[in-house]
Design a protein that fits this description.
The chain has an 8-stranded parallel beta sheet. The chain has 197 residues and is α/β, with parallel strands linked by helices.
């Protein structure tokens, strides 16, 4: 299970992130599109060193080595420029896709890819699936890249997501729009663990 940071400021965010990581979150995607390099460094330095291996950088990839981060995420736009802009090899790479055709055409250098939106987005207004992705993924040909469901995932539909063929889920709105992000994380984590057993 993956959690993506809220792109905007959240009260007590670092404290919440530590709580979630201490509960066993394996991958935390740092997505702060408006952050400058300085803001990104400052933000990451607030996260305990022991969790650096859990962090995935969405932007300012050039900071990764100095920060001890080995995981990069590439937007669709970035992916088209990959690897020319990113000559340094990275141990783990992920990317975003929005159609099964896009997912199927990925090269094998991506460990996993988000496919979205699966459901109506919780965090983005008026962002809903144009196609039924559960139908779409029946034509999946790429089995080397893990397929991660994103978009509207919450405790009510995680089970359905796995039952329909996704390998993992990424959470954003269900965590950050909840008045108790940690409690919501633990609820979702419990459902994921019960499915994977």
């Amino acid at each position: 299970m993956i959690v993506i940071t809220n792109p905007f400021f959240i009260e007590d965010e670092i404290q919440i992130l530590h709580s979630i990581l201490e509960e066993g979150l394996s991958l935390l995607h740092i997505r702060k599109p408006d952050f400058s390099e300085v803001e990104m460094v400052k933000f990451i330095h607030q996260i305990k060193l022991e969790f650096r291996t859990n962090l995935v950088l969405h932007s300012h990839h050039q900071l990764a080595e100095d920060l001890g981060i080995e995981r990069f995420h590439f937007s669709e736009k970035d992916r088209k420029e990959f690897p020319a802009r990113f000559p340094k090899p990275c141990r783990y790479n992920s990317t975003s896709t929005h159609s099964i055709e896009d997912f199927n055409s990925l090269e094998t250098k991506f460990n996993y890819a988000f496919l979205s939106p699966v459901f109506k987005s919780i965090s983005k207004e008026n962002y809903s699936p144009e196609k039924d992705l559960f139908e779409e993924i029946k034509s999946r040909k790429n089995h080397k890249t893990k397929m991660v469901a994103l978009g509207g995932i919450d405790s009510e539909n995680i089970q359905k997501t796995f039952e329909n063929g996704f390998d993992d889920v990424a959470l954003l709105g269900t965590i950050w729009k909840n008045e108790n992000p940690l409690k919501q994380f633990k609820l979702c984590q419990k459902i994921v663990h019960s499915h994977l057993q």
